[in-house]
Amino acid sequence: MSKKGLSLEEKRTRMLELFRESKEFYKLQELEKAWLPRSARRHRLLTRSVWQLAPKTKGITSMSVKEVLQSLVDDSLVKFEKIGSMVSFLSLKKRKQLSNLEQSVKTLKRQHQDLTLDIAERAALIERYEDLQARHIELEKQLDSFTTPDEVKLAEAKQELIERLKTSALRSTDNISAFLSYQRNNGGSEAAAAFRQEQGLPEDFDDLSL
User: What are the E-state strand segments in 5-164?
Assistant: First the structure.
């Protein structure tokens, strides 16, 4: 019975162990070929513990290394750096936490910018409201200054009209009184009484008081 292969999650876990135990960075070709870390090659540390860091001894086949690496990169558990044509992969124990913190910082900065814009917009609206309120008060003052003289002029015009009407009424009264006197002197009291009745004039018309 053939041995069951590792799941993707198991491969991811073992690949992370490789990075974090060795604290080294690797090229893709090194991981696929299960090469030793450069420090081990440089110092020729061919001990059992060093060999255990190779992907092959972690049970990860060369064909699946790239897929596992990409999934770890997508989840920000492994970071890749490109220097010229060389691409290196590394992972620190706190890399995921650091990535989350960096994302939180970006979110907070964006929220701060939004709040700053909201505050600036609110301040502008308040300033606009205060300007409109001051303008409203100024217009009311102008309206009062326009209304008062008009009321005075209206009262003066009304009084002038009353005086003119009184003068006209007195003149008409004088004319009618003169006519009635003429009627009494020339046609008798009957003619004057008939005219007064015809015009609807009261008996004391001559004493009309204005």
Answer: 26-27, 79-83, 86-90
